[in-house]
Specification:
Elements (H helix, E strand, L loop, with lengths): L3 E12 L2 E13 L4 E5 L6 H8 L8 E10 L2 E2 L5 H7 L4 E4 L3 H4 L6 H13 L3 H14 L5 H4 L9 H13 L5 E5 L7 H18 L2 E6 L2 H7 L2 E6 L2 E7 H6 L4 H8 L51 E4 L2 E3 L2 H4 L6 H4 L1
Parallel strand pairs: 3-8, 3-9, 6-7, 7-8
Antiparallel strand pairs: 1-2, 1-4, 4-5, 9-10, 10-12, 11-12
């Protein structure tokens, strides 16, 4: 049984201009001990999907209008606020995208680390502080006994992200959601943080949802991948299948925009022409059709959206692919 099973999730935001369909009928699952990646352009619905799982969508203007989020067989959308508060942090935790805005600037690192330990594990202050020091040591922060009394602005970006990881694992959750966990740090620190996160998740026997637009990170760490576009999942499968045999032209476009070591250095990267659609009035049929060079005129724009298992374990919403053709692979080779 899956640890997390999201089915037909729809999240909307009511604005002055109209209803923004940020997440539109999204389904995905995470198995125990698995690392699953959500990838796609900015604004495709990755972060809103994760905030919906955590029940952190601000109401108003946002609202989860339909679907189910089954965690260990229980629908999180049916829990009361108090019940969800007991799940959040203890069983499901989240590493937010920007640590400087996620950490409280007027509270010490120790105060912020001990809060969850006292609330969820029932520790007294002294025991919680000792555990907080151990957590800082575990994520590689030197002189943890002294640094626990510091404030967020005393830390570098990489150190703050390590503190966020420590907070996320403090109660040994079964699922960790990492939203762009390496955005604010340089490449060398990215590798350190990701290896640290991977080893901690393995030691805890937890699962991880990695939200990122860095396909290099996905190729190295993810077991399965869900590709999102315009608030929908347009393709999903194993990481190996997604990278070696993309079944959606949008996925192929993402892969084509990334430098590859096995290609000549002078080869120009390919971009995806056009802009994502307006989510206030999303188009009928395939949302990517207007930007797609392989669309079937008169069909892709009107065909009802549907995920099809084109290859065992590999799903796509692309009409061309489930008819047995992938002409975009010629441009990738």
């Amino acid at each position: 049984m899956s640890l997390l099973n999201v089915q037909h999730l729809t999240t909307e935001f009511h604005t002055q201009d109209g209803i923004v369909h940020a997440v539109n009928d999204v389904s995905f699952s995470v198995n125990r001990g698995e690392l699953v990646a959500l990838v796609g352009e900015s604004g495709c619905g990755k972060t809103v999907s994760s905030l919906s799982i955590m029940r952190l969508i601000p109401e108003p203007p946002g609202k989860i209008t339909s679907g189910s989020i089954l965690f260990e067989g229980k629908d999180l959308l049916k829990l009361t606020k108090d019940e969800m508060r007991r799940v959040r942090g203890s069983k499901i935790s989240m590493i937010f995208q920007e640590p400087m805005t996620s950490l409280n600037p007027v509270l010490t690192i120790g105060r912020q680390l001990t809060e969850a330990l006292i609330l969820h594990k029932g520790m007294d202050k002294k025991a919680a502080e000792a555990e907080a020091v151990d957590l800082l040591n575990k994520v590689g922060i030197p002189q943890a006994e002294k640094r626990i009394k510091s404030y967020p602005h005393h830390f570098s970006g990489g150190m703050r992200q390590r503190v966020m990881i420590a907070m996320a694992i403090s109660c040994q959750p079964k699922l960790v959601i990492a939203d762009e966990p390496t955005t604010a740090v340089d490449v060398t620190i990215q590798a350190q943080l990701l290896e640290l996160l991977k080893s901690i998740i393995r030691d805890l026997n937890s699962s991880l949802i990695l939200i990122t637009h860095n396909l290099g990170v996905v190729a190295r760490y993810a077991h399965r991948v869900y590709v999102m576009y315009a608030g929908r999942v347009v393709e999903h499968g194993t990481a190996a299948e997604i990278f070696h045999n993309p079944l959606h032209p949008y996925t192929a476009g993402l892969l084509g925009s990334v430098p590859r070591l096995d290609e000549p250095r002078k080869l120009r990267l390919r971009s995806i022409e056009g802009q994502p659609p307006d989510l206030i009035s999303p188009p009928k049929g395939c949302a990517f059709a207007a930007r797609c060079a392989y669309r079937r005129e008169g069909r892709c724009e009107t065909l009802e959206f549907e995920m099809v298992e084109a290859i065992p374990g590999h799903f796509t919403s692309c009409l061309v692919a489930f008819e047995g053709e992938t002409p975009w692979r010629k441009t990738m080779s």
